[in-house]
Amino acid sequence: MSPIVFALHKDHAHRFSKQLAPSLVLIKGQGIEGDAHCGVTVQHRSRVAVDPTQPNLRQVHLLQAELFDELAGRGLSVAPGQMGENITTRGIDLLSLPQGTKLMIGAEAIVELTGLRNPCWQIENFLPGLLTAVLDRGPEGQLIRKAGVMGVVLAGGEVKPSDQIRIELPQGEQRPLERV
């Protein structure tokens, strides 16, 4: 299966889950038009409290729909948008992509991956057991965060469900995504 946009979400307010959207408009250097996390500087409340002038490396939250299948197998029912993502994908292992990967989404939009979403306590308040389910350990004991990836908008444009996603890996040394 070719990578596609499975579902789209946004919310003008800072809430854990986001509302289903028929399309999204991505704005270069800012994020999703009409979303609470849109802006040149950081918009996540916990990060604003620390330093409101830091750049917004979390303009777009992407999450692979395959995670919902995995969670269902553990008895946890989660639907697209409920974990706060803007773009739910299918057919792409987002977590395996290196930092700096460019995702060309639809006809115009380009999102560059900046890092991994670090799940917070709100995830457990939303659904008990979910925090443990989205944090795992690798063979060497390293923490694996499964709650999606974050990115910045390099080129704006409209994105719709079923849009194709093309992947461009960074040239040179490829560094794994880290918490951002």
TrEMBL record:
It holds the Pfam family MOSC. Residues 19-168 form the MOSC domain. InterPro entries: MoCF_Sase_C, MOSC_domain, Pyrv_Knase-like_insert_dom_sf. PROSITE patterns: MOSC (PS51340). PANTHER family: METAL-SULFUR CLUSTER BIOSYNTHESIS PROTEINS YUAD-RELATED, MOSC DOMAIN-CONTAINING PROTEIN. This is MOSC domain-containing protein.
